Amino acid sequence: MYFCITQFTMILQSALNQVIETQKANLSQKDAGLKRDALATLPNLSAFALIVSGIRRCGKSTLLFQLLKERYPDALYLNFEDPRLYEFGPTDFARLDESIKASGSNVLFFDEIQIIPEWERYARQKLDEDYKLVITGSNASLLSRELGTRLTGRHITKELFPFSYHEFCTFKELSYDKSSLLSYLELGGFPEYLKQGIPEILNQLFEDILIRDIAVRYSIRDVTTLKRLAFYLLSNVSKLITGNRLKTLFEIGSTSTVMEYLSHLEYSYLLQFVPKFSYSLRKQIANPRKVYAIDTGLINVNSGSFSEDNGRKFENLIYLHLRQKYREIYYFAEKNECDFVIINNSKLVEAVQVCFELNPDNINRELDGVVEALTFFAAHEGFIVTLDQTDRLEKNGKVVHVVPAYHYVSKL
Q1: In this structure, is residue 6 part of a structural domain?
Q2: Of 350, 208, 200, 225, nearest to 269 (Cα)?
Q3: Which of 108, 168, 242, 340 has its CA 20 to 30 A from that of 7?
Q4: Helices in 30-177 by DSSP H: which ranges?
Q5: Sheet containing 155-160: order of strands
Q6: Is residue 2 situated within a structural domain?
Q7: Cβ proximity of 203 and 301 under 8 Å
Q8: Same domain, 411 and 331
């Protein structure tokens, strides 16, 4: 389902009112689903619009419904992807104003409003009129980097991800253990896929993001190369990539075009790119970056990776856990490599090495990587996250805790 709205036919006031009423009735009968951990972190509404952003199908609309049911049961709710609103255009906002006045509510929940041109002006208007406003939508149109100019800073953006390991275990009624961790590694956290188990759900999601959120939005004509690039990156998570290397590999005209593609893939939340740590921003940009996907189930269904890639997908899983807690994540590489260093105000928060299974062949390499990072940042303790091992290692005055992933990622 794609939207390319170039001409508008006015919608009748009576039709708009009917949509609002039927959507409200449908909401009252809807199952709230698994209560998302993110619900507790959402702020109370004030003079700022609350923007919930995230990849498609991760549960943004469900989170909005849970927020409405728990805190704002009298809010006016409108989902703009309703087929009856396909003809809704900017001139119809005046009719929406009439519906809002008739409702008597000062809290507005707008789902997928970004498909309507000039929605930003309307949102700002409602804020100026002292309405409380919550907006969700596909991240391709609700990027925080764009909202600064659209709402002139009057917004708070919250990210939503597919189910965390904690939510996965709650949903599946599983314990935190090796078995459930491996199941999460295979299935990932997209709610609808976990409910139905149909791989085509994740196939279609992958396709929708590439076509709807990227190719159509950014007028990319060479969709085949975009798909090949995305497939390659999804099949090579946890590996180092460079624009020049990808340009050569896919015979793309320029490195700048490659970097544009990578930017689109990142801002759609499909893929994330982790830079090498350096106090120099120029060096961060120049060095290779590591690529990670938004969900391990998405990797398994849509990529060419195989079971022997569990180590790299396992590292991806740990990255996703860290990404939901922190924004400033790097890999560290001097003589040895440490998979993740978390930085806040130029100080180390956490040094994390990821190893599916420690053994005599790799223990020195894994330990040296985290110890070198700890030494560089003058820190004392770090972690090696494994599938199912527990230990306490010491080297050069540094303490490294070996922990099972199902303990490490069970809580945010």
Answers
A1: no
A2: 208
A3: 108
A4: 60-71, 93-103, 119-128, 144-150, 165-172
A5: 76-79, 107-111, 132-136, 49-54, 155-160
A6: no
A7: yes
A8: yes
Q: Which two tokens stand for residue 190?
A: 């997209």
Domain of 398, in residue numbers: 326-412
**Residues 220-262: pLDDT tens digits?**
999 999 999 999 999 999 999 999 999 999 999 999 999 999 9
The answer on 294 and 343 residing in a single domain is no
How far is residue 377's CA from residue 362's CA, in Å, rounded to a whole number?
Answer: 23
What residue has token string 């890999």?
331
- Domain total for the chain? 3
Cα angle 242-244-250, degrees, rounded to a multiple of 5: 100
Which of 20, 37, 36 shows the shortest CA–CA distance to 84?
20
Residue 347's beta-bridge partner residues? Answer: 344
DSSP H helices in 295-388: 296-302, 310-325, 363-376
Query: Same domain for 242 and 332?
Result: no
Q: Note whether 191 and 156 are same-domain residues.
A: no
Same domain, residue pair 168 and 309 = yes
Cβ-contact 161, 294 below 8 angstroms: yes
Q: What pTM was estimated for this model as a whole? A: 0.92
- The CA-atom distances, in angstroms, between 323 and each of 134, 247, 328, 365 are 24, 28, 8, 25
Going from the C-alpha of 318 to that of each of 8, 292, 341, 355, 376, the distances in angstroms are 46, 10, 12, 10, 22
Residue carrying the six token digits 């929605």: 119
Q: Which of 328, 321, 342, 341 is nearest to 411 (CA)?
A: 321
Give the three-state DSSP class for 137.
Answer: coil
Contact assessment for residue 402 and residue 389, using Cβ atoms and an 8 Å cutoff? yes
Evaluate whether residue 5 is within a structural domain: no
- Tens-place pLDDT, residues 320-367: 999 999 999 999 999 999 999 999 998 999 999 999 999 999 999 999
User: Over the stretch 199-213, which tens digit does the pLDDT of each residue have?
Assistant: 999 999 999 999 988
Residues 51 and 120 reside in one and the same domain? yes
185 forms beta bridges with none
In terms of residues, how long is the chain? Answer: 412
Cβ atoms 134, 112 nearer than 8 A? no
